[in-house]
């Protein structure tokens, strides 16, 4: 069977068992603060397991693309080294939400593997939870009894808590699990050593392929287990491992999941796969990593320097580095793999083929940038080893942290020169950074404390800014040693952050006492609205009036509705290829990222502004449609965003049917006239193929217009109110430029006038013409002019010039080219040494270098010490 057939057989099988087949969620997580990426098939169903969303389908199956590169599940450094770890992988899963349990899950797993996929029963082993006395948990005899109906008892193995008790995290739903393992060794190997002894022993050919999780408990903050009101099944089968077993391969990378990309890399590099371990590893790394990066970008996560964006950048750079070091690629090529992947996943995950050009261009830009970084890192390394015999740990960490230079490449370069790297020092510096980062982001979240048993929740913020409500539950959160509280209300007018729009703030007012609690923010977590406060109400059991900050909401709505008008206007002016790639909407500004590959011209910006402002003046009424079937909305021509997970029913926001029609959960103006005025304040590049527009509306745009008028009025007054302000200002600028040229000319003449004085002071030290002196010049450029003038006139020159600019000392070292080569004098090394006297640093080239410092008193010492370098 091909991998495509294997995937489809799984979905067809569970569809025949009454499961609803659902699409994969985006690999980038948008509304869960505990996750950056989807790392398991159950992530998109988390709110169902927690009982925080209604269950529409009690049986569900899918293939979910997952990414495991951070946190608890971090396999990045193993990827490519072994044959079965991946960054991005597919997780085939079937779920039961309070419907069937262990009996059906076990029977169907066995049926699919042995009757549909025809896997050899004699190669299969299963594990069950052995129990844990410290937790008061017994052996999972229920799973054992069901398994022994299908498999010999000696193939049912006991597993400890680590392997056979699955937990979502430190808290949350959990339960015993039953793993299914497959022994891929040869008949001879299996005869010599029993597979039982190799299960969960990290043997590369005895691998886990499926995990059946039976969720029975909820882990509380204090570590205790609470029985769930309903029992659930959550299974996950590694697609790549399954394909390997069915296709009889010894490596995941030998299956048709990876051979298309590996074959492309081998042909492009001219290196045959399977001949050399290092090049094989590099091909596997690139083949794996391009999948992760491509789908993350297609799902809306661009490479960047922080959070999820940094993870994606790190994965891509690891691929570039392996290709650079072991496959000889010194120019970009990884982006050329995107079309190969797009075709491979067409009809399965069409997000990639729909955005193929965009994803390619983003990856190309990142490749170009990192190859430049590698070149810079190599040069810094070469400069460093000129006068070091050990690569200091701090320097290795600086290359890694500041310049993105991989530590193993630093080690490789060091070995080539017969040097070693202080890895203990590097690890210490890295650990300090990790500890600092962990401390900055550490959050201690308590258990929910139930106040009212009301399980319902109603958001009324589309229709009103006030509502009568009760506190359903609360919990305490400690971050950066600061206590906060999070409340869940029965009814809330507060919009929870989402879709680029910030969460509402406002007040919670007790009806009984009048006490006011300030709501600082509102966020969504697993489907529920969480309201942030700095303290709890004195009487949690009372009734409250929840009241949104109306001014902030109004200004935010102006900006959010303006983004819809902006999106439509951009498509008109720039083309239909324009798609939203991110947004931020708050009370002060709107930020809108779009897919577009050229800087917008001033005329294009003006056209967009004119279209948006025309629509504002038309005062187009908002047309809001709630609970529209998703497919019906798409058929009506609505704009949907890549990387968003939409439900079966959606909300449609329209400002004129033929102009702007989008799926959106945010809050909006009742009519466009409320926006007032729209003005773009900046347009810039964010990443390859992504432009960022920032704009203002409403009260903020009125304030900015007023500020600009006041500024122009003030400038006119300073210029004695000329009739033609622009011409008068131009004349002043021209006059200023002319004066600057005169000053520069005067400084140059002064510098050159000193040339003869310096030549007269030169002394002969052996065959070197030496001079070390202080000069009085106004800036570094003047000193440079003087230094090069003397260098051009005097052979075998070693010149050191000290000066002071605005109270700060400066040193310049000039060495004749021939002298630098013959005597090994290096201006860069010399100036760094002399800079110690002025408490500074610097560098440059072997024949010209400069340094600055903060101790002018040390200039005299440095000048006097310069002659020592000739001894």
Automatic annotation (TrEMBL):
Record-linked SMART domains: tRNA_SAD (SM00863)
Residue sites binding Zn(2+) per the record: 560, 564, 664, 668
Keyword Aminoacyl-tRNA synthetase recorded: yes
Keywords associated with the record: Aminoacyl-tRNA synthetase, ATP-binding, Cytoplasm, Ligase, Metal-binding, Nucleotide-binding, Protein biosynthesis, RNA-binding, tRNA-binding, Zinc
GO (cellular component) term, any one: cytoplasm
Subcellular location: Cytoplasm
One term of GO molecular function: alanine-tRNA ligase activity
CDD domains: AlaRS_core
Cofactor(s) demanded: Zn(2+)
Listed InterPro entries: aa-tRNA-synth_II/BPL/LPL (IPR045864), Ala-tRNA-lgiase_IIc (IPR002318), Ala-tRNA-ligase_IIc_anticod-bd (IPR018162), Ala-tRNA-synth_IIc_core (IPR018165), Ala-tRNA-synth_IIc_N (IPR018164), Ala-tRNA_ligase (IPR050058), Ala_tRNA_ligase_euk/bac (IPR023033), DHHA1_dom (IPR003156)
Principal subcellular localisation of the protein: cytoplasm
Pfam families: DHHA1 (PF02272), tRNA-synt_2c (PF01411), tRNA_SAD (PF07973)
Catalytic activity: tRNA(Ala) + L-alanine + ATP = L-alanyl-tRNA(Ala) + AMP + diphosphate
Cofactor note: Binds 1 zinc ion per subunit.
EC number: 6.1.1.7
Residue ranges occupied by any Alanyl-transfer RNA synthetases family profile domain in the UniProt entry: 1-707
The protein's role, per its UniProt record: Catalyzes the attachment of alanine to tRNA(Ala) in a two-step reaction: alanine is first activated by ATP to form Ala-AMP and then transferred to the acceptor end of tRNA(Ala). Also edits incorrectly charged Ser-tRNA(Ala) and Gly-tRNA(Ala) via its editing domain.
Domain comment quoted from the record: Consists of three domains; the N-terminal catalytic domain, the editing domain and the C-terminal C-Ala domain. The editing domain removes incorrectly charged amino acids, while the C-Ala domain, along with tRNA(Ala), serves as a bridge to cooperatively bring together the editing and aminoacylation centers thus stimulating deacylation of misacylated tRNAs.
Family affiliation: Belongs to the class-II aminoacyl-tRNA synthetase family.
Name used for this protein in its record: Alanine--tRNA ligase
Lineage: Bacteria, Pseudomonadati, Bacteroidota, Sphingobacteriia, Sphingobacteriales
Name of encoding gene: alaS
């Amino acid at each position: 069977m091909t991998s495509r057939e294997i995937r489809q057989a799984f979905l067809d099988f569970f569809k025949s068992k009454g499961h609803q087949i659902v699409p994969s969620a985006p690999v980038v997580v948008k509304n869960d603060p505990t996750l950056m990426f989807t790392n398991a098939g159950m992530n998109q169903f988390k709110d169902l397991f927690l009982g925080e969303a209604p269950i529409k389908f009690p049986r569900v199956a899918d293939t979910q693309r997952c990414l495991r590169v951070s946190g608890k599940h971090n396999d990045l450094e193993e990827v490519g080294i072994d044959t079965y770890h991946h960054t991005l992988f597919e997780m085939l899963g079937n779920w039961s939400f309070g419907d069937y349990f262990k009996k059906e899950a076990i029977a169907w797993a066995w049926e699919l593997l042995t009757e549909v996929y025809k896997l050899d029963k004699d190669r299969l082993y299963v594990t069950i939870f052995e129990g844990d006395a410290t937790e008061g948990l017994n052996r999972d005899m229920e799973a054992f009894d069901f398994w022994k109906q299908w498999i010999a008892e000696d193939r049912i193995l006991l597993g400890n808590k680590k392997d056979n008790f699955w937990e979502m995290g430190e808290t949350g739903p959990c339960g015993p699990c039953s793993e299914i393992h497959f022994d891929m060794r040869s008949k001879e190997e299996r005869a010599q050593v029993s597979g039982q002894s190799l299960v969960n022993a990290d043997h590369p050919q005895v691998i886990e392929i499926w995990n059946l999780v039976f969720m029975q408990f909820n882990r509380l903050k204090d570590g205790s287990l609470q029985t769930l009101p309903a029992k659930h099944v959550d299974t996950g089968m590694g697609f790549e491992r399954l394909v390997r077993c069915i296709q009889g391969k010894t490596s995941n990378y030998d299956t048709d999941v990876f051979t298309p990309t590996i074959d492309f890399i081998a042909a492009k590099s001219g290196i045959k796969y399977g001949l050399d371990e290092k090049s094989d590893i590099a091909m596997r790394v690139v083949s794996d990593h391009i999948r992760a990066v491509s789908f993350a970008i297609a799902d809306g996560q661009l490479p960047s320097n922080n959070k999820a964006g940094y993870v994606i950048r790190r994965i891509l750079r690891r691929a570039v580095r392996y290709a650079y070091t072991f496959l000889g690629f010194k120019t970009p090529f990884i982006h050329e793999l995107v079309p190969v992947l797009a075709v491979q996943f067409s009809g399965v995950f069409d997000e990639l083929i729909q955005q193929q050009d965009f994803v390619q261009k983003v990856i190309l830009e990142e490749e170009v940038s990192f190859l430049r970084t590698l070149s810079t890192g190599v040069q810094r390394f070469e400069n460093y080893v000129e006068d070091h015999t050990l690569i200091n740990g701090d320097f290795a960490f600086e290359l890694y942290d500041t310049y993105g230079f991989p530590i193993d490449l630093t080690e490789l370069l060091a070995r080539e020169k017969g040097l070693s790297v202080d890895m203990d020092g590097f690890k210490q510096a890295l650990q300090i950074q990790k500890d600092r980062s962990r401390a900055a982001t550490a959050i201690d979240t308590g258990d929910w404390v139930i106040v009212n048993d009301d399980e319902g929740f109603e958001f009324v913020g589309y229709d009103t800014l006030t509502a009568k409500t009760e506190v359903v539950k609360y919990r305490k959160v400690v971050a950066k040693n600061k206590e906060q509280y999070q409340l869940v209300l029965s009814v809330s007018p507060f919009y929870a952050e989402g879709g680029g729009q910030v969460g509402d703030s406002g007040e919670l007012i007790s009806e009984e006492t009048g006490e006011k609690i300030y709501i600082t923010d509102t966020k969504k977590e697993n489907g529920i609205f969480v309201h942030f406060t700095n303290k709890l109400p004195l009487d949690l059991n009372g009734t409250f009036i929840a009241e949104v900050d109306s001014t902030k909401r109004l200004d935010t709505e102006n900006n959010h509705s303006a983004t819809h008008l902006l999106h439509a206007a951009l498509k008109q002016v720039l083309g239909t290829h324009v798609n939203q790639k991110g947004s931020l909407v708050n009370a002060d500004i709107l930020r809108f990222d779009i897919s577009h590959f050229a800087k917008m011209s001033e005329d294009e910006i003006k056209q967009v502004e004119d279209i948006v402002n025309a629509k504002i003046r038309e005062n187009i009424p908002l047309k809001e449609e709630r609970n529209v079937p998703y497919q019906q909305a798409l058929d009506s021509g609505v704009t949907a965003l890549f990387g968003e997970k939409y439900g079966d029913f959606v909300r449609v926001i329209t400002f004129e049917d033929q102009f702007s029609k989008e799926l959106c959960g945010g809050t909006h103006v009742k009519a466009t006239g409320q926006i007032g005025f729209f003005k773009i304040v900046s347009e810039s590049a964010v990443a390859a193929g992504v432009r960022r527009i920032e704009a203002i509306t409403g009260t903020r745009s009125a304030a900015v217009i007023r500020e600009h008028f006041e500024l122009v009025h003030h400038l006119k007054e300073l210029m004695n109110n000329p009739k033609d302000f622009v011409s008068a200002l131009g004349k002043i600028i021209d006059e200023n430029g002319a004066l600057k040229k005169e000053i520069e000319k005067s400084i140059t003449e002064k510098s050159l006038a000193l040339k003869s004085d310096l030549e007269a002071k030169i002394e002969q030290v052996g065959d070197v013409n030496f001079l070390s002196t202080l000069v009085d010049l106004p800036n570094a450029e003047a000193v440079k002019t003087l230094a090069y003038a003397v260098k051009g006139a005097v052979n075998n020159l070693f010149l050191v010039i000290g000066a002071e600019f605005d109270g700060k000392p400066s040193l310049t070292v000039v060495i004749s080219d021939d002298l630098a080569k013959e005597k090994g004098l290096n201006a860069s090394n010399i100036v760094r040494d002399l800079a110690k006297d002025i408490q500074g640093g610097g560098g440059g080239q072997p024949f010209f270098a400069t340094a600055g410092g903060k101790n002018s008193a040390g200039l005299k010492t440095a000048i006097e010490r310069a002659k020592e370098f000739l001894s």
